[in-house]
Amino acid sequence: MNSLSQKEISGQLFYLSKESVKTLVLNSKCGLIIPPVRTSKKSSINDISTLNNFSPLLCLYRKASPMFIHNKTSHGFDESTFKKEISPTTNALMTLCLLELSKYYSHFTEGNRNINSLENAYKYLAKEQLQFYSEHLRNAEGLFVPKKNISDGNSKGYELVDKDNKFKFSDQAFMMDAYLLYSIYNPSDDACEDYKIFSYEILQVFKEYKDSLYDLSFTESIEIFLALNVFYKYSNSLIARELILDLGDYLVNKFQEKDYYIDSLDDCALFAICLMEAYKHTDIISFKETAKEINEKLLSLYDNDKNIFLKISDKKDIKYSCTEINFYLISLILYSEETDKTNDLKPIVSGIFKRFYVNGGLLSSWPEAPTLDEVERYKRLSLRVDDMMDESYFRMSVLPTPKSTGLAPIFVKNLEYSKKKDNLSKGRVTFDSNKNMTNFFLIIYLFRNSVEDTMELNLPLEEQEGLNNSLRNSSSSGSKNANLDNNEPSDIESEISEIKSNDSVIDTTSELENISNNSEPQITLNGLSENKASSSEHPNLSKNKKSKKR
Question: What is the predicted pLDDT for the residue at 469?
Fold first, then answer.
């Protein structure tokens, strides 16, 4: 296989993620399913009625076998393999994927195209999911917490209980992103204002409890750092930017305290990704320099002869998680683009992709490429022969398909590398929803704009050939720091003023006073059903609000 370009690799990863999310959300049945009556009520909305042909998820379970079973009563994953735990972060990432993909599919109806797409269906699903999360994934104090379905089967309804009495800041952070993005991509929706206010209330909790973030593990702190960067990209919020500056500075210092490359390579690569995003949002040189330092270290681990990066280990066999591999590759792709080293790093990026993704068994299967009569196979969705894109932009022909394997296209949990045999092997294939949704979201979130540019989706069909490319590139690159289709105020005080002027919503000032008085942060959302969460005891979030010098 000749070296693939980074455009081809990012295109393949985006296509994989897009189709995998579609399969998991619409066909797997690995979670609670939206009843058909709920979709049929909305069938008058464009493209929503198509959901009645599927089994769309309200939420996603933690684990399952990715093998599809087909019989008279079922078409989906084997329910007997389900681990029916529901993670707030995993589900928020699933909803964020749907919202990002709805933006991608919005191009299908632009100009003279008028092509049916999943844009409205995904927006509808996202709203149903967000409503479900607010009603069923929060505890008595209003915080998002892991739940468990203790009912016997999906066909018999569900009974959710708290998995434990602990909460995670990272769960709140990704839910904050999901509610915000829905409000941005659906400005005419009745729930838009409430969702926007809700997301800013969670942001305010992070501001009030900023010092508590310094007690968290390095792993969770990086996850929150990522979520804050996502929030800022969507909103241009000054509060989010301040939190990025503060938490980023703390993490840069903490990163110097120990050698995370030995047993936390995934944290290192994800931290580099976050730092590159944070530099775009803040122009802080230390973020750029630390990202460069990490990426150069990652490059030093690469073995050119074996086309593999070797983790620092004395063991005969090296285990790689799918997140380690993905974060490593994504970080190098972004680094090569930010430093104009695309040509220099092309052999390494292509070598890693070939070794792990194509020949190493990192994927259980890979979706088939769009056929020649499908618009997605063509730039600008034109169906013109001269716009046809090569199959290598969607997949490698040697990879097995879901049809040939009977397996959904997912990342396997781990690969093991034998130094002696110089080969990669995988164990039993299971679906880990947290690892997969983390991978899929990062790929979709980071590569969607470049994929749209390559496919020229921002150009109308009638656009004349030879349009000044610089104008198009300027338009796409300007979106990196811009507020996406959004007039969101950057100052949270304007949000608070808006809330206070509306008697029908909660009084944020009172909420913040309660927090400062060491009460539980009762996160509530106007307009949604009454919280049905259990009243289990919950540790006090505020504890002692202590300041830490860094």
Answer: 41
Handedness of CA 106, 107, 110, 113 (dihedral sign): negative
How many alpha carbons lie under 13 Å from residue 404 in its C-beta half-sphere?
10
Helix 88-105 with 119-136: angle, nearest 10 deg? 160
Q: Which residues contact 502 (CB under 8 A, 6 or more apart)?
A: none
Q: Taking Cα atoms as reference points, which of 278, 276, 325, 337 lies closest to residue 301? A: 325
Predicted confidence (pLDDT) per residue in 185-198, tens digit: 999 999 999 999 99
Distance (Å, rounded) from C-alpha 45 to C-alpha 464? Answer: 34
Distance of CA 446 to the CA centre of its chain: 9
379: exposed, middle or buried (C-beta count within 10 Å: 0-12, 13-18, 19+)? middle
pLDDT at 242 over 70: yes
CB 453 within 8 A of CB 469: no
User: How much is the average pLDDT of 66-82?
Assistant: 85
Structural element, H or E, at residue 75: strand 75-77
Indicate whether 506 pLDDT > 50: no
The residue type found at 354 is K
Indicate whether 470 pLDDT > 90.
no
pLDDT digits (tens, 9 = 90+) for 129-169: 999 999 999 998 899 999 999 998 766 678 999 998 789 99
Enter the tokens of residue 143. Answer: 């915080």
Q: Residue 532: pLDDT above 50? A: no
Q: Please tell me whether residue 462 adopts helix, strand or coil conformation.
A: coil
Dist. CA 436–CA 30, nearest whole Å: 13
Residue 465: HSE in the Cβ half-sphere, 13 Å Cα cutoff: 4
Buried b (16+ CB within 10 A) or exposed e, 219-244: ebbbbbbbbbbbbbbbbbbebbbebb
Given a contact cutoff of 8 angstroms between Cβ atoms, the answer to whether 90 and 62 are in contact is yes
Kindly tell me if the per-residue pLDDT of 460 is higher than 70: no
Question: Burial level of 528, CB count in 10 A (0-12/13-18/19+)?
Answer: middle
